[in-house]
Specification:
0% of the residues lie in helices and 51% in strands. It is built from no helices and ten strands. The chain has a six-stranded mixed beta sheet, with no helix packed on it. The chain has a four-stranded antiparallel beta sheet with strand order 2-4-9-8, with no helix packed on it. It is globular, with a radius of gyration of 13 Å.
């Protein structure tokens, strides 16, 4: 049995005047092959919300972008097939299906 360590560490928003965004949990432990949801809550008006993943010693890599008004998702090219995002009210969820040890990283929303 493998455990994945996922962290939502840093939060980014463009033009943050009176807006905020924060992870619901800073660390998540998961068992291999389970579905994992990373969540951030935001307030204010946003055009899009982006997710990035950073492995230790590497630069952040763009994963996907969501558009809260339309619930559409724009994936990286090439896409990461086990990743998806859902926006519900003032929360954006990154969903990792079939978690693997290789998913252990810092995630930025």
């Amino acid at each position: 049995m493998f455990l994945c360590y996922l962290a939502v560490f840093m939060i980014m928003l463009e033009s943050c005047v009176s807006q905020s965004i924060a992870p619901l949990e800073n660390k998540i432990h998961a068992v291999e092959d389970e579905t994992v949801t990373l969540s951030c809550e935001y307030n204010g008006s946003v055009d899009n919300l982006q997710w990035y993943r950073q492995y230790h010693g590497s630069r952040p890599v763009y994963l996907l972008m969501t558009f809260p008004g339309s619930n559409s998702v724009s994936h990286a090219d090439p896409p990461f097939p086990r990743l998806n995002a859902i926006v519900k009210e003032s929360r954006v969820n990154l969903i990792i299906s079939s978690a693997a040890v290789s998913d252990s990283a810092l995630y930025y929303c």
